[in-house]
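Let's practice the habit of predicting before peeking. Look at the sequence and jot down your guess about where helices and strands might fall. Then scroll down.
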Amino acid sequence: MTFEEFIMQARAINASDIHLTVGAPTVARVNGELVKFGDLTDVIVNRTIRSTLSAEQEKLLTEGHDIDFCFELGNGARQRVNVFRQGGRLAACIRLLNDKIPTLEELKMPPALAELAQKRRGLILVTGPTGSGKSTTLAAIIDNINKRRACHIITIEDPVEYRYTQDKATIHQREIGRDVPSFSYALRSALREDPDVILVGEMRDFETISLAMTAAETGHLVLATLHTSSAAQTIDRIIDACPVDAQEQVRAQLANMIQGVIAQNLIPTADGKDRVAALEIMLGTDAIKNLIRVNKIPQITSTMQSSTRQGMCTLNDSLAKLYKKEVISYETALEYSSDRAELEKTLSSMAGF
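Done guessing? Here is the structure:
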């Protein structure tokens, strides 16, 4: 069996990730759970991992570096790979990306996301834990813009995950380590490259955050990701990542430019056959911006709860809707809730429950 056939078998069982480890069983993540996958010997695992590396990557691995890259199958399907050592042995995690960029409608995203894609300037953040579908949601938003607007889109990614087919937009995709040395370097360059839309794969440090906000402040639409689980936590994380003497300025900048925060998680469905996105959506209304400006971040959630007509929703709102539609189970809804007691009250008050 070739490596490509191995990957296709994993795709056939709807796996999202494969873990290859010399000295341990090969496992795949299916609907969020790890299951044994394949029966590969240590020799084959070692050979398979090394076969994905270039000579330069082999050299970096020997020097003690972890390796991040993407590779394509013959049919165009892309995989994101991280190769590393543990216990002196080789290991790799392979993320199986979608064969094509899904639309927001195919992802069953609410209208608020399509409306955010129509913004001409400001900052949109897609957040969530690893494996929550952030990259796919961002790709769907970017492709939505691509299909509707003649503009210049620059993506800065580590590594490039989805390849866009240019439609109305002109798109340049820059990969960290291959095209540019860092996110901050790429952002500085992007501002001299006449962009309309900039996608930042991840806002990892103060320098990147500062440059991304400057880009948003100077009339560009900037989209980025963070590893946070709620809208309020996202705002706190950005401010806390900045030096104390810069936090007041960052708070004012955020209040001026924030267009929206989409915090998402992938939840197992009730039938155990798939996962569905539970979303928390915060929009940059005057009320939200004022709470950020005066540093009343804890009040953001209650403002979101009272702003459902404007398209906002909390995680509990999303979980309650999914449960009411019988998409997820009662136990699963409570397990993923950030406020279990409040969700229990909401579910018990629903008609018919």
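How did you do? DSSP finds 14 helices and 13 strands in the chain.
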